[in-house]
Amino acid sequence: MSAPHSTGDGRPYFFFDFISPFSYLLLEQHEKWPDMPFEFVPVQLLKLFERWKQPHAATIPSKRVFVYRHALFRAEQLGIPFRMPPAHPFDPTKALRLAVLANGDSACVRDIFRFIWREGRDPSSPEGFRALCEYVGMPEAEARIEDQAVKAKLRENNDRAVAMGVFGVPTFLVNDQIFWGEDTLPMVLYVARSPNWLDAAEVKRISNLPMGRTGAEFGDAAELGA
Hints:
Strand order of the largest sheet: 2-1-3-4
CATH architecture: 3-Layer(aba) Sandwich
Oligomer: single chain
Distance between the termini: 37 Å
Number of strands: 4
Order of helices and strands: EHEHHHHHHHEEHHH
């Protein structure tokens, strides 16, 4: 069974954006992950939202508050240090380019996340990014993130994610299947141990359900008195 839009190559991937507290929380549980050589792929969540025409949580006031509370709750539940940055959403572009420059090194990615979500600092301002570069031991990165090759690689990551059907972060891609969200880790672990579950009759059935009526069509029907 292949995921819709998937052009995966069978390798395991971890797609993330530093704007996401749940990406941070999932990475802090790295010792629980399946024993697989995950490639760390920084992507721009807002670009994914634009591609799939999804609203950002920050555009819905009640959802924004819930997301922040949920992230704090999960951190407390998991015993993970957590401190929101001064403002959110922030522009994660510089931090993402820094991760690209570090070739997705997991230790560097972890430290960037901790600067933002454990230290509660802003990586987007000139002063904040300079401090971040020092924090991860890459002071030269302040200038190097402007390299065209670095910018192009981040765009390539976004395109690759969309081609694989990735619609949010954090996302695991295991056996070319998408597992989205911090709370998906138990499912990833289960499928890693029991890959045949994806071939079960009911899993196949619900994975190929026909598309029903969309919200817009419901609205049209209501206007017509249906």
